[in-house]
Amino acid sequence: MKNVEIPKIEKLEVGQVIKNYKQLCEILKIKTKTGGSKITQLDKLQDFISYHKEGNKFIMDEIKSTGAVLIDKRSLGNNTSTSMEIGDIILHKLITEYRGKQINVTSTELLYRMMLTSKEYKLLLNDSEMYQHFTGIDFKYLNSFVLKVGYQLNRRVESALNRLKNSGYIMYDKKMYLKFKDIDESEYIKTLENEEEKRVFIDSRLLAFKKLNNIRKEEDKKVIPDMSIIFAYGEYKRFRYLVCDELNKFYDDECINFWNFYSITTTKLALKVVQDDVKYNKNLEYVKNEFYQLLERNTKEIKDNEILRLEQEFKNTILEEDRNILFGESPRYKSSEIKNIMYNLESMNKNLID
């Protein structure tokens, strides 16, 4: 079996400036490469770090949790086994529906528009509180679920986008939106374009992350090891507020939200590709099944444990309701709610894909 080259990210810091590719490899203790091998290597590094470039310089935007990445990669298996099919699906949609027009979408929205995930998945990622309200599924489970699968689905899509970009079919960039509210309460969106604004945003996230952990210490809560898993701790909304609070020191209007998005444009070369609807439908069916199997594998343990917990809670509730009925109190309501939550949990993976 070929050894996997694992970069040493321990000495990296958010905001760190690395003067060139050679120095980056020296810090990460990995071999320098050239040509296509270098492109592949830099693509795989996105599993561990997020960065942007200023000329030859690499600016660190995010350092990801090594342990979480290794778990993800092992569960993911060979992501090239579906990146070609996902790429074909994306290209088909871009050509048949957008005809070369630029689209700006988040990774979650892209999965939905490509018909690879459902409205329920979109709701879970965009508004977990509303999803919890509809399903009753415990927040702790939802947070663990997103940590286990959200990154992996996004990573497969990005791998497919890189494949299309390297083939000359699309051009794409990852950008950042900031949402503001002005003095008249009107909302508007700003795209971070220049390097100074990007640096301000990176610094604001770093300061907000430190503040968040200081608050958690005061609350006798566990410190979050890195920014990439804030959602799993149920702290994204508070983190977002703290980031915007820092950004408000640099902007006249009030920051109320921010998010990453892909800016994708189809090339003229892609528009010459003849689309095959039969192949597209087969690819769609194949990838959706692969996504479903991935969700089933990666959430089996936490789902089984949550079902056991709910089954025990159901038994205890039935006993309590039996006693209440005996004394003329209300009939069974809570036990019915628990049964409904168990049903939603069992069908969750299927509903997120279909």
Number of domains: 3
Termini separation comes to 36 Å
Q: What is the gyration radius calculated from CA atoms?
A: 23 Å
Query: How would a textbook summarize the main sheet?
Result: 4 strands, antiparallel
- The global form is globular
Helicity, as a percent range: 55-70%
Query: What percentage of the residues does DSSP assign to strands (E)?
Result: 5-15%
Q: Number of helix segments?
A: 13
Q: Largest sheet, order of strands side by side?
A: 4-7-5-6
* N-to-C series of helices and strands: EHHEEHHEHHHHEEHHEHHH
Please tell me the overall pLDDT: 84
Uncertain ranges: 66-80
SS elements, strand count: 7
Q: Class by helix and strand content? A: alpha+beta
3D structure, described in words:
This protein has 354 residues and is of the alpha+beta class. It folds into 3 domains: 63 residues, no CATH class; 202 residues, no CATH class; 57 residues. Helices cover 59% and strands 14% of the residues. The strands form 2 sheets. A 4-stranded antiparallel beta sheet has the order 4-7-5-6. The protein has a 3-stranded antiparallel beta sheet with strand order 1-3-2. A hairpin with a 5-residue loop joins β5 and β6. About 4% of the residues have low confidence.
Brief digest:
The chain is an alpha+beta fold. The chain contains 13 helices and seven strands. The strands form two sheets. The protein has a four-stranded antiparallel β-sheet with strand order 4-7-5-6. The chain has a three-stranded antiparallel β-sheet with strand order 1-3-2.
